UniProtKB/TrEMBL annotation:
Its EC number is 2.5.1.18, 5.2.1.2. SUPFAM superfamilies: GST C-terminal domain-like, Thioredoxin-like. One of its GO terms (biological process) is glutathione metabolic process. The keyword rRNA-binding does not apply. Its main location: cytoplasm. It catalyses: 4-maleylacetoacetate = 4-fumarylacetoacetate; RX + glutathione = an S-substituted glutathione + a halide anion + H(+). Its cofactor is glutathione. It comes from the Eukaryota. Pathway: Amino-acid degradation; L-phenylalanine degradation; acetoacetate and fumarate from L-phenylalanine: step 5/6. It is found in: Cytoplasm. Keywords: Cytoplasm, Isomerase, Phenylalanine catabolism, Transferase, Tyrosine catabolism. This is Maleylacetoacetate isomerase. It comes from Eulacestoma nigropectus (wattled ploughbill). Residues 87-206 form the GST C-terminal domain.
Length: 210
């Protein structure tokens, strides 16, 4: 497999965690979203992924984009360890949380949107994340065990950790979100989350390396 990734992309990080958890080795091709006006807009990358975003995963003779679609494919082709619970209610809760982050929070504060916001980008990002986290904190108070849903790592957790990193980067006060913070801390102790961290990628700038 070949993963097209950017060290700081939270969507790419989700996929890196999934690959690490499932023990799938891959080659990483960095796509710098800032340099050269954004390498994702190059003709070469557009031919590979018309959406012009990372991540993209070349695997089993196909190219997939969209992080949750990639993770679902990995789940179906490499079922162990599972990232979706067997219980239908818990499985629905995992998908609900993953969708809330991947559709309801992250796209509102990603690079392409922030470029449009000009000087207000920090305030905009903080507002988007805060309103999303207020809902998420409430949801997790009902679903969480050690992790987002019960005590097994799930697709929801793969979305949570990169989003908390974004919140910290945009200086969001995490005080009102004790459940989110507790789960994030527990997940960051796991090896798959450590090795996939933005500070430990081949394209991480020297000053941001762990």
């Amino acid at each position: 497999p070949i993963l097209y990734s950017y060290f700081r992309s939270s969507c790419s990080w989700r996929v890196r965690i999934a690959l690490a958890l499932k023990g799938i080795s891959y080659d990483l091709v960095p796509v710098n979203l800032i340099k050269d006006g954004g390498q994702q807009f190059s003709a070469e990358f557009k031919a590979l992924n018309p959406v012009q975003q990372v991540p993209a995963l070349k695997i089993d003779g196909i190219i997939l984009s969209q992080s949750l679609a990639i993770i679902n494919y990995l789940e179906e082709t490499h079922p162990n360890p599972r990232l979706l619970p067997q219980d239908p209610k818990k499985r629905a809760q995992v998908r609900m949380i993953a969708d809330h982050i991947a559709s309801g929070i992250q796209p509102l504060q990603n690079l392409s949107v922030l470029k449009q916001m000009g000087e207000k980008k920090m305030e905009w990002a903080q507002n988007c994340i805060t309103s999303g986290f207020q809902a998420l904190e409430q949801i997790l108070q009902h679903t969480a065990g050690r992790y987002c849903v019960g005590d097994e790592v799930s697709m929801a957790d793969l979305c949570l950790v990169p989003q908390v990193a974004n919140a910290e980067r945009f200086k969001v006060d995490m005080g009102p979100y004790p459940t989110i913070s507790r789960i994030n801390k527990a997940l960051l102790e796991l090896e798959a989350f450590k090795i996939s961290h933005p500070s430990r990628q081949p394209d991480t700038p020297a000053e941001l390396r762990a």
